[in-house]
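Memo to structure team: turn this sequence into C-alpha cells by end of day. - J.P.
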Amino acid sequence: MGAPKKGDWREARRRQAWELKQQGWRQKDIAQGLGVSEGAVSQWFRRVEQEGEAGLASHPPPGPQSKLTEEQRQQIPQWLAQGAEAHGFRGDLWTSGRIRDVIERQFGVHYHRDHVRKLLRDLGLSYQQPIERATQRDEERIAAWARERWPEIKKG
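Reply from structure team:
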C-alpha cells in the first residue's frame, strides 16, 4: 500500500491497528495499546471489511463548495481577453481587485481579491501585466540615461 502521506499520523495509527489484528491481537488490546477507544478500532475494521485496506486511507475534508459553478469559472478567461476597458475600467490593465469586481457584477459573488489570485492560478492564469509600453516612452532618452547618468548614480 505504501507509506502514509507526511504528517498523517492518524492513517499510520489505523494501519498499525490493522497489522496488529493480522498478528492475532484482540481488538480490546489494540485499542489500549494505541490509546484509542474500542469503538474507533471497531469502525476502522468495519471499513476494511467494506472497502478493503483502502478504507484505512486518509480522506481529508473536501473544503468549502465553490461559490462559482464550473461554467461561470470558464467565462473568466474570456473576460480577461476582452480587456479591462471593455468592462468599464480606465486603462487596459487587469488587477485582482478589478477581476473581483467583474465577478461580483456578473454573478453577484463576492471574493476577497487575494482569493481571486488563487482562482486565477487554478485556471492556469495570472492577472495581466501591461504588454504595450507607455505612448510617451522615449527609447533613445532611456538608453542615453542608462549609458550616461546611471553609471554616475551607481558609483555614488
